[in-house]
Amino acid sequence: MSKSKDLLIDIGVTLVVFTVAVLLLGFTNYQNNKSDQGVTFRQLETGIALYEQTVDSSLFLIQSAEDANLVFPEFNERVNWAQEVVLGYIEYPQPTTGYTLKVTSVTRQGPQITVNYQLLLPSDASLNLTVVTQPTLFVALNRTDLASSSQLTIRFRNELTNQTTSLSVSPDEIV
After folding, report:
1. Is the domain of 168 the same as that of 86?
2. At 140, which helix (H) or strand (E)?
3. Helix (H) or strand (E) holding 120
């Protein structure tokens, strides 16, 4: 009788532990996949634009001042590199100077971060050169907001055209 009682207790404990584990995993999955969680960001006003270059739109994960200066030598923004990373984005070529990019929101849904932006046209009152330019956009994010146990996808999405440029990052690439 004692052995069957012990067996029933073991089965009961196992069922309770299993139920708690399933509930915790379900809650964690819900938290990680909630629809469009807002992410705190800071748009950096660098004034950097590429002239007379026609590269496809490009996305960069920048983790140090040295990395930033390799790609963008004139980058001199104040960034707390111990706590922040910078996402750099080069827009498609535009026909004149004066085009700018503005971040409207940054969201996270599971292992995907989306930076929503708008391409702002030059104002009619501005004097712009007729030269091919590519506006750039820099966004500082807290490193902890990029923490992920699986591959992270970073997307820049133009709100007007819905066009996206993506970069996939493995968890060990964000140090």
Report:
1. yes
2. strand 133-142
3. strand 112-120
Taking phi first (over 0 means left), then psi (-120 to 50 degrees means alpha), and beta for anything else, what does residue 162 get? left
Residues 88 and 28 in one domain: no
Overall domain count for the chain: 2
Domain that holds residue 7: 1-32
129 and 49 inside one domain: yes
Q: What is the pLDDT of residue 35?
A: 57
pLDDT band at 14 (very low <50, low <70, confident <90, very high): confident
Sheet with 100-109, side-by-side order of all strands: 37-38, 100-109, 112-120, 152-158, 164-169
| Nearest CA among 57, 58, 39, 44 for reference residue 148 | 39
Same domain? For 105 and 164 the reply is: yes
- State whether 41 and 6 are in the same domain: no
Give this prediction's pTM. 0.76
More confident site: 79 or 125: 79
Q: What residue type is assigned to position 151 of the chain?
A: Q
